[in-house]
Amino acid sequence: VQLQASGGGPVQPGGSLRLSCAASGYNLNYYAFGWFRQAPGKERESVAAVNWSGNSKTYAESVKGRFTISRDNAKNTAFLQMNSLKPEDTAVYYCAAGSRWPARDYQYWGQGTQVTVSS
């Protein structure tokens, strides 16, 4: 199983980015997807998660109302729409897939995609 995260890049404060996490090698339609981020010098933190059907989602308090997680099972892909970005959102963002909900242990991880919010 491979997870390919993409969509990161530089953006100005207040801007938007949409991250994608494309899975290959296995059908993850019955897995939860999660997005995590790690800023320099900080521990990795959970940003958002979505269950297999997409009808249950969780968010970190710091991103509620600004970020939206979603998934397209037909494409074996998860997304993270990030709006109203702030400099403190700057981090490497990772996607992961796990077989349980609420998600605890994630079995599969993608490589990171850098998000830099700066003017």
Description:
The protein has 119 residues and is an all-beta fold. The chain is built from no helices and 11 strands. It has strands spanning 2-6, 9-11, 17-24, 32-38, 45-50, 57-59, 67-72, 77-82, 91-98, 108-109, 113-117. Strands 2, 4, 5, 6, 9, 10 and 11 form a 7-stranded mixed beta sheet that branches. A hairpin with a 6-residue loop joins strand 5 and strand 6. The radius of gyration is 13 Å and the shape is globular. The N and C termini lie far apart (37 Å). The relative contact order is 0.33. The model has no long low-confidence stretch (mean pLDDT 96).
- How many helices? 0
Binned, the helix content reads under 10%
Helix/strand/pairing category: mainly beta
Strand content: over 45%
Q: What sort of overall outline do the alpha carbons produce when their principal axes are compared? A: globular
Helix-strand topology string: EEEEEEEEEEE
Biggest beta-sheet profile:
7 strands, mixed
- Stretches where pLDDT is under 50 for at least 5 consecutive residues are none
Task: Provide mean pLDDT, rounded.
Answer: 96
Oligomeric state as shown: single chain
Distance between the termini: 37 Å
Count of DSSP E strands?
A: 11
User: How large is the radius of gyration?
Assistant: 13 Å
